[in-house]
Amino acid sequence: MIMNPMSQISRRIFLLLTLLTASVAQAQLSIEITGAGANRIPVVIADFPGEPTVSRIVTATVRADLERSGLFRMVDPAGALLDENAVIDHADWKGRGADALVAGSLARSPDGRLEARFRLYDTQRGVALGGAVYVTNNTQLRAAGHRIADFVYEKLTGERGVFSTRIAYVLKSGGRYLLQIADADGQGAATALTSTEPIISPAWSPDGSKLAYVSFEKKKPMVYVHSLASGQRQIVANFRGSNSAPAWSPDGRRLAVVLSKDGNSQLYAVNADGSGVQRLAQSSGIDTEPRFAPDGNSIYFTSDRGGSPQIYRIDIGGGAAQRVSFEGNYNVSPRPSPDGKSLAFITRREGRFQLAVMDLASRQVQILTDSHKDESPSFAPNSRMILIATEVGGRGILSAVSSDGRIKQRLTVTAGDVREPAWGPFLQ
Amino acid sequence: MKKLLIPALLSALLAACSSAPIDENAGAPVEGRSGNTAVAPVVAGDLDASGLPRTLTDPASPLSKRSIFFDLDSYEVRGEYQDVVANHAKFLVANRGFKVLLQGNTDERGSREYNLSLGQKRADAVKRSLVLLGAQDAQIESVSLGEEKPRADGHDDASWSQNRRADILYRAADGRGEF
Question: What is the ipTM of this complex?
Fold first, then answer.
């Protein structure tokens, strides 16, 4: 049986937290690509010599990752079996329409581990662009494939790849709420928490080891921090009233939260262990959905202080809030991109809730979807894709949209409603 | 038979203990701004399964009305619910040991976190009304469930109006109750 590392972690979490295994195993996300970039780079991933079943898993993962990104087009290797030291006939591959080629091998070491070696070539210029060795094992073959895909993606696009990252989301199925963690391609879903009460607003710690979220398991919303590997949970905000909307500071030491303990929903910061509560802003209305800017010096949030919900920004050091969104009377859920250049948010236009992105330098707003119930945007750590919850045919699904709106993917689960996605950080 | 009787006797005893109005704030001045604090103490010799006096849960009792519905984008307690709020305020004034949890709710449209804040506004509005009528701040916690716990699952105006709501949950001084 082939498993990836998340499955192993999930087993442990299962034992600690839940007795429900059978139904969860069926709750795999499946991905459908509904749009792709205009100029995709043609790449051939040769078959790797080595144990065929093992090699096939790695190469299939690399191909699927690159294809799904919308930036690459797979050229058929036509059965070519090429290891990393094979002599490459660049002109031939160029003639077959491939601009780049990956060759590699999988070799088993005496201790049973596998070494995935590969080299990437530019067939146009007839040169090697680099290569690497990833030591893996039977349970982490797909992880090795994701790392090779990340390498290829970065060499050919100049940006870091996100194939090795993970996503979190909430699956509502049969009256239960499952907080799930999956690979960025939706595979290997593991359940971190099962509850009969709602779970919302999962947020990854910057190092990817923990999730903060809001759980209603005690008849009211409270903020928890959950260590994924151990399954340990800690309540970090349980004040009188509602506790919600956790957002990590970039250094992972503080959380911005929304508390109603002093009246309306207002912004506070707490340490990651729940101590040291401190007010961040003051208004007579609602302030919620805080998100740190990537430099940690300011916070974007939603406020109705001007009469309708709009996006504002405040400096951590204090000072007046600046209004950021102006078009329309309902702009919520601000998410600054990790590169600091843009802001994703949800805007209501003619009764439809749609994903929009603002270029922070020019303040230009572009609406990226034509759906009616988009929610909870979340940037990939390389800022290129935005994951959202949306609805198709009355069912909650996830959708990933490139920040230029051209590339679209749909992630669905047959067993229930998927919502509240959060894209995790780069693998450390 | 005996085994069956003992728990029954115990619960009857417990009922007797918790039935008298409990004044945790003996000696503290009682606010009476409503001018109508003369409420007959509830004799709760008769507890329901959750350990609350039946006057709170019996469908024939006005106190069994626990929901206040709101207009779209509104956080004001409508006139038709003033009696509901007043009845609960009277109960809380007469039974200082009892606590309530007010859960605000919204319809499904819009951001979940923003809706959580809107539901909080609804619960806070009911709390303000109860306090104005003499209930004590310490007796009431207002929280929000946002759009997460709809009463009606439909995606139409009829369902949405059912879901724009604040619910009142009770807990007796002995800790038993609905939350």
Answer: 0.90
